[in-house]
């Protein structure tokens, strides 16, 4: 078991410094070339890997070129174009009604405020944060996905369980200039080393400050269960 820094803010800063050295080019892995494509890619990525989303959007974004294109096709056709994605039927419905609202209420443009974004179908705070950060250069919060959720708990940065509560806690301890990058660093480390089922603690640069480190900690603080 590693020994965390004295305060959570110090722990957060140390984690960021070390992960930045490990993953200097860390950034979003979804592919898109405009805000609507970003919004759609993020809606599709819920409970689905970015890799699979990128494979599917390669042909999707060639066929559909704006919100009207998504609204005009029958929902079955759009769903069939997404059928390698988890919950593709629901997501086709979300995309169509989000595009309808974009056309009717926002002049065809993806909105740039948290309130307007979260009113769109299929868009929660996490999706809205990604679109604001990468589509509009507005950083209002921290994107808490499954990797951020798991690593923050394992590293003793929070004991909260719900993503919204974790986000609030992280916003109090992660320096504001790192709110965006913190997510990407957690995702890269979560994919490479600190995986959900079998983290490689012996190869981890955070081992000496991680209270979940498998060496002699009995408990995975992410789940609260024994390793
Ligand atoms: S890989 Fe192990 S030591 Fe590293 S952050 Fe995850 S649980 Fe902690």
Would you spell out the secondary-structure blueprint of this structure?
Blueprint: H1 8-22, H2 35-44, H3 50-63, H4 67-72, H5 75-80, H6 88-105, H7 114-118, H8 125-136, H9 146-154, H10 163-173, H11 179-192, E1 219-220, E2 225-226
Helix pairs in contact: 2-8, 9-11
The structure holds iron/sulfur cluster.
Cofactor: [4Fe-4S] cluster
GO biological process, one term: base-excision repair, AP site formation
Keywords: 4Fe-4S, DNA damage, DNA repair, DNA-binding, Endonuclease, Glycosidase, Hydrolase, Iron, Iron-sulfur, Lyase, Metal-binding, Nuclease
Overview of the molecule:
37% of the residues are buried. Helix 9 (146-154) packs across helix 11. This protein has helices at 8-22, 35-44, 50-63, 67-72, 75-80, 88-105, 114-118, 125-136, 146-154, 163-173, 179-192; strands at 219-220, 225-226. The chain is elongated, with a radius of gyration of 19 Å. It is built from eleven helices and two strands, in the order αααααααααααββ. The two termini are 12 Å apart. The chain folds into two domains: 8-26 and 143-226, Orthogonal Bundle (Endonuclease Iii, domain 2); 35-136, Orthogonal Bundle (Endonuclease III, domain 1). A two-stranded antiparallel ribbon has the order 1-2. With 227 residues, the protein is mostly helical. The mean pLDDT is 96.
């Amino acid at each position: 078991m590693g020994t965390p820094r004295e305060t959570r803010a110090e722990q957060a800063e140390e984690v960021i410094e070390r992960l930045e050295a490990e993953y200097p080019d860390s950034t979003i892995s979804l592919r898109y070339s405009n805000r609507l494509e970003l919004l759609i890619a993020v809606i599709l990525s819920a409970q689905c890997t970015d890799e699979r989303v990128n494979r599917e959007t390669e042909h999707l974004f060639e066929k559909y070129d704006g919100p009207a294109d998504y609204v005009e096709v029958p929902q079955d056709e759009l769903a069939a174009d997404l059928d390698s994605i988890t919950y593709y039927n629901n997501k086709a419905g979300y995309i169509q009604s989000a595009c309808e609202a974009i056309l009717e209420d926002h002049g065809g443009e993806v909105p740039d405020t948290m309130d307007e974004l979260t009113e769109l179908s299929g868009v929660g705070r996490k999706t809205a944060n990604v679109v604001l950060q990468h589509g509009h250069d507005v950083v209002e919060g921290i994107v808490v996905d499954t990797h951020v959720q798991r690593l923050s708990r394992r590293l003793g940065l929070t004991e909260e369980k719900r993503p919204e509560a974790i986000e609030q806690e992280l916003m109090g301890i992660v320096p504001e200039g790192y709110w965006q990058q913190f997510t990407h660093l957690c995702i890269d480390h979560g994919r490479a080393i600190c995986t959900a089922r079998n983290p490689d603690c012996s190869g981890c640069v955070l081992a000496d400050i991680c209270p979940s480190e498998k060496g002699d900690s009995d408990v995975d603080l992410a789940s609260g269960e024994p390793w």
